[in-house]
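request received
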Amino acid sequence: MADAADILLSVEHLTMRFGGLTAVDDLSFAARQGEITALIGPNGAGKTTVFNCITGFYKPSEGRLALRHGDASAWAALETLTASGKRSGKADGGALYLLERMPDYLVAQQARVARTFQNIRLFPGMTVLENLMVAQHNRLMLASGYTLLGVLGFPSYGAAERAAIERARSWLDRIDLTARADDPAGDLPYGAQRRLEIARAMLTEPVLLCLDEPAAGLNPRESAELNELLLSIRADGLSILLIEHDMSVVMQISDHIVVLDYGVKIADGAPSAVRNDEKVIAAYLGVEDEDVAQVAAEVRA
Amino acid sequence: MAARAQPATKPHPRHHVTAAFRDAGMTALIALGVFLPLIGFQTVTNIRNEIVLTTRWPLLFTLVAIIGCGRLCYALAIDPWLRRRAMKPVKAEVPAWRAAVGKWFVPFAIGFVIVYPPLVLGLVGFRGALKWVDNFGIQILIYMMLGWGLNIVVGLAGLLDLGYVAFYAVGAYSYALLAKTFGFSFWILLPLAGCLASFWGILLGFPVLRLRGDYLAIVTLAFGEIIRIVIVNFVALTNGYAGISGIPRPSFFGIPFNADDDGFAAVFHLPFTPVYRTIFLYYVILALALLTCYVTVRLRRLPVGRAWEALREDEIACRSLGINTTNTKLTAFAMGAMFAGFAGSFFAARQGFISPESFTFLESATILSIVVLGGMGSQIGVATAAIVMIGGTEIMRNLDFLKDIFGPTFDPTQYRMLIFGFAMVLIMIWRPRGLISTRSPSVFLKERKSISADLVGEGHG
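response:
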């Protein structure tokens, strides 16, 4: 870990096999604190598989997925933690989590990695506000004394619930959905559902937000609004990991791009560097390796 | 309607009538085809033990005529009326009287069930009251409570449970065995039976909650049967098919309901009658049922209740939000089982006798149909369905006047399941998502708007 200074998530040698198919092959990259890291690649490159491994929905076949909370000095404890066989450990200035060892709900609850889905997964029969309240489940569960105090009607829970509604309302203002707070989420237009899903993920108070194709199906205006929203989330100091096909989104807002093709990393760097990478161009145009140089020259011409 | 222009596509009236007759004719023909072998011919055994073919033409033609006329009626009158109604613009505003009914319905209903026993006593006297309070009051309230309990599992959490009666049985046998063996009172054993039932709920829950949908339904069905078969075969403990009799009845704060000098009637200087015990039991089950409803309504507004409903809507999204879905499902199972345990111990105390016959799959199916008929997740819907279904079956037992019409051999209870099934089919056509299908949100910013059933998930198990 040479420049471990501001690394938030470190993916090392991640391999995911489904029977005979290797969806992700020995992938290593890092997402830095306060940056937007984009994961791009053609269809079927294994991007969503990487996401599912990071968020605990899949158990990787091999590899280490480490996430830090707090100070960068926490990385010092990484090897000891790995050897100890535990899921997470407190370090000097923070804590370390080994995501590959945690079940999905603990990744969200303890390691605080939130995610959205490629095909929107809201609770369609619940109102917009209820969706945002469910996101604050763990905090409210604690306030309701694991339901016991809540059933008996202790006032502390009422206060916690009001605070949760306030937090939800501030996010509703931010995504411009306050007027529709009491409508069922399934009734919202597509773009609004995307924004709501991001707000819902944010209300779990994550340190890393993983977005799986947030701009899919959005019109150019909505896409521009999404860019603004993501940049404002980054301005709050949050790190974002993003899968995206829409290059206008990727190139404008990401600080760092990782390109996958057939489960293998083919490029990793700043947007300007990746944009001109021959292998990336070839992968997107679907060209054989031998012809790469020729095609790249044609593209530039 | 008069001011509105006629729709352009309206068919010519005479053409319409011709089509209706043709339609009715076809229907009658199909009915004839179906009923000819079923009703038209009958085989009877004569005195020499030979099978003789007889015909029943009058009956056959009456039936076919009824069906044809019914279809004609539908095509000429009911169908045009339905079309006209569908074309009328839907009023967005809820009329004032309906809003008032909505507001006052629940307090009025609770008031009514509280004054119900004295009301019945006043109307029909001591002799008739027993039937009305016991068969209608207590019986309906037991099923209402079971419906509300199962509603947590099926309606809120979306886990299809076909073996709910198992927990009812656990509650009943817990009370019966512990009360007979150790002589504990009803009030100690009531919470204990609830705890035991919810313990079994968790025990069942652990292995099966990985399953979803049909698979979960099958395993819960099997669990219900396992509990019943264990009760049947564990004769040393449960006395098998013979059941347990002489189960201690609950007393009124230590005063038994009997004809002795220290019995309830003697202590309060009243003439002895069994109605007092029944009325007391009525209030006990009323309190238990209202407790179930109250706790469920409260839980819905707590994070755990919201997590149940979120689980029904989308389990994967729940996990991505850090909700432990296993625990959430287990709490739903445990809560549902606990209320079934309460109801079971009450049932044992009321009957004084229990046997495995009372805990068959039919009971599970009845409770589940109450929940589905009422509208999954709706408390008022489930209560209404319990009244309609259990009250309906009880009324079927009291239709003696039908004997005057169909002759003395006619027994209306024999047609109970037929009419029951017919009613189910009708309701599923008219209201596929139950009597009350809209969902009321658990929290709101400005106003509480009910959510249409089209959006609300049914759960994947």
